[in-house]
Amino acid sequence: MTTDKIIVPLDVPDLDSAIALVDKLPQVTFWKVGLELFTSTGPKILDILKSQEKRIFLDLKFHDIPNTVAGACRAAASYGVDLLTIHATCGKDALKAAAEAVQIGAEKAGTKPPKLIAITLLTSISARQLAFDLKIPLELPEFALEMALLAQNSGLNGVVCSPQEVQQLRTSCEKDFLLVCPGIRPIWAEKGDQKRSLTPSQAITAGADYLVIGRPITAAAEPELAWNQIVEELKTV
Ligand SMILES: O=c1ccn([C@@H]2O[C@H](COP(=O)(O)O)[C@@H](O)[C@H]2O)c(=O)[nH]1
User: Fold this and answer.
1) ipTM more than 0.95?
2) Of 23, 85, 201, 224, which is least packed with CB atoms within 10 Å of its CB?
3) How far apart are CA 166 and CA 175, in angstroms?
4) Which residues, other chains included, contact 223 with Cβ-Cβ below 8 Å and sequence gap of 6+?
5) Ligand 1 centroid – CA 110 distance (Å)
């Protein structure tokens, strides 16, 4: 297992903190820029990461009507990022419009289109919350599978899913359909707000393509040590 499969989120409030984290962990090749950093500082961090030849997951989790997500995807695709997110619950028309828009946006900017991946169900949602708060009348694994198939049938490249659903999605979705998993927790890490987690080695064994691992590394007293521990764990897979 290569360390290129580990994506570390830059969940920090400003550009200086982001640069400090990137400098602290030069071995990380794939960074995730999410809502907090992008909302506070805009696309500057993308240029900085690109200048260091890092891969970028732009996790803006678009959720809107077809015309609006298409516009947002066209703009995001022009940045030349590697992965981009949208919620599967936008529905088929919006997903199709988004898939088309990333191609158009990238072509216009003369860059490679990002892989567009859909959130099936946030990893912070438990089966109980799905049933009682969101009133979804399906079992959680069935709902996650339906969202993944909706994304696949709408022309998306993959999904963001809990590692707990990877095995099922790996057998039900096409071979090259990307499965990107947050909610990864080594046994020594706090779960925090993550409700559907597995360890790094369990997630890779189940068939995940990429692991998104944030606080177990970035909030550790020694982030480099935490990274090394995870890499050692993954050598056993
Ligand atoms: O369902 C989802 C979708 C995205 N995320 C993002 O992944 C990271 C996880 O960070 P941790 O610190 O390892 O919990 C974070 O940036 C989320 O926005 C997710 O957790 N679940």
Assistant:
1) yes
2) 23
3) 12
4) 21, 24, 25, 217
5) 30
